[in-house]
TrEMBL record:
Ranges where the Aspartate/glutamate/uridylate kinase domain occurs: 7-216
Reactions catalysed according to its record: UMP + ATP = UDP + ADP
Residue positions binding UMP: 54, 74, 135-142
Cross-referenced Pfam families: AA_kinase
Activity control mechanisms: Inhibited by UTP.
EC code: 2.7.4.22
Free-text function comment from the UniProt entry: Catalyzes the reversible phosphorylation of UMP to UDP.
UniProt-recorded name of the protein: Uridylate kinase
Length: 242
């Protein structure tokens, strides 16, 4: 299906895509490839805000499951997202794409704090702004951070690049009969607990009428294809449930 022409999007990449084929951490060669994808999308004239998760390094829930204090573990997760943001910044700047990292947890020596009007100015100057540390509070995820930044930066859509090519009615890895939705309503996603993003992120997008485009970032060139309306994706929006 063809997507409307977007002026500004928020691209959310889960931390796990930065691992490439490694079981953990950051594969710099793979991050370089992701940066090329982002650059190609930007060269179509699109304004891009970027949010990267931290699941390739640390997830608060995993730490809590092993007995850590949940809030403490979540702060570690937030720090992981800053590391990923810096890795992506480095990869983008190496290929001539100007970026700024803004973190919701202040760390002046490393990056800027989140200041919306300053982020706007960066966008005007053609920079990509990478928002790190989610919403800056424990018990949230970078999906919520992505939804929040998409709303405050007035993005036309939130593109969620992950390792699956859309939203299915069941887990496609476990159920061979699982089918992918072309479009699906926010309310159905929430009611059926479909695995798109966490509920707070979906609700924020619903309330601000920001469609979520779920696609696979693992296939080379797919971001550009999806943006051109030629890729495989699921669009979650304020539409009648499919
Ligand atoms: N996190 C948090 N608050 C936020 C964003 C992230 O506490 O606003 C922590 C949380 O522990 C989370 C981790 O950072 O598990 C990494 O983020 P996330 O799980 O969203 O990464 P992804 O799954 O996208 O790689």
């Amino acid at each position: 299906m063809s997507l409307p022409q977007f002026k500004r999007i928020l691209l959310k990449l889960s931390g796990e895509v930065l691992m490439g084929d490694q079981p953990f951490g950051i594969d710099t060669d793979y991050v370089a490839k992701l940066a090329e994808e982002v650059k190609a999308a930007k060269e179509t004239g699109l304004e891009i805000c970027l949010v990267i998760g931290g699941g390739n390094i640390f997830r608060g829930m995993a730490g809590a499951a092993k007995g850590m204090d949940r809030a403490q573990a979540d702060y570690m997760g937030m720090l992981a997202t800053v590391m990923n943001a810096l890795a992506m910044q480095s990869a983008l700047e190496k290929i001539g794409v100007e970026t700024r990292v803004q973190s919701a947890v202040q760390m002046d020596q490393v990056c800027e704090p989140v200041i919306r009007r300053r982020a706007e100015r960066h966008m005007e100057k053609g920079r990509i702004v990478i928002f790190a540390a989610g919403v800056g509070a424990p018990y949230f995820t970078t999906d919520s951070g992505a939804a929040l930044r998409a709303a405050e930066m007035r993005c036309d859509a939130l593109f969620k690049g992950t390792s699956v090519d859309g939203v299915y009615n069941a887990d496609p890895k476990k159920d061979p009969t699982a089918t992918r939705y072309e479009t699906v309503g926010f309310d159905k996603v929430l009611a059926d607990n479909l695995r798109v993003m966490d509920a707070s992120a979906v609700a924020l997008c619903r309330d601000n009428d920001i469609p979520i485009v779920v696609f696979s970032i693992r296939e080379r060139g797919n971001l550009a294809r999806v943006l051109a309306g030629e890729g495989t994706q699921t669009v979650v929006g304020n539409v009648a449930a499919a």
